[in-house]
Each structure stands twice: as C-alpha cells, then as structure tokens.
Amino acid sequence: MDQAxxxxxxxxxxxxxxxxxxxxxxxxxxxxxxKRTLSIEARELLAKIDExxxxxxxxxNLERVARAHxxxxxxxxxxxxxxxxxxxxx
Length: 90
Description:
The chain is an all-alpha fold. The protein is built from four helices and no strands.
C-alpha cells in the first residue's frame, strides 16, 4: 500500500500547494511613508535646518519631503509648520 493511500490527510507530492501571494509594492508607495519614520532625506533636511535655520519660504525641497511624509502643504503652510510636523514623526 502506498503512503498516500495509508494516510489520506497527507497531501501527495504530485499535488501543488496554492501559491502564496507576496505583498506588492506600488511605485507610489516608494515615496510615501506610512510608518512613523523619517526618510534619510528628511533627516538630512532637519540637520541642515538645525545648522542654518528654517527657510523663510516653503522651498520645493521642503514641500516634496513634507508631501512624501503625508504632510499636506497649501499656500498658507509655513516652513515652521512643516518642520514641526516632520520632527513629530521622528
């Protein structure tokens, strides 16, 4: 008697198990941080701000980093606000 016949609960080697689905990463997810962590770029930006001060206006770089970390930026958003919210995520 074959082993598979002796124990019907054991799957036969010829049967293939269902493929496990691996989590997929969307391209947009590469630039969006859902965890409470800062990117290397954000940490470097904060270090530069610590050395030289907060810019007077929201620069393109500051806005891009803010948006990448889920911080909404509008015309009324100040650089101080963005920096404060980035530090909160650290």
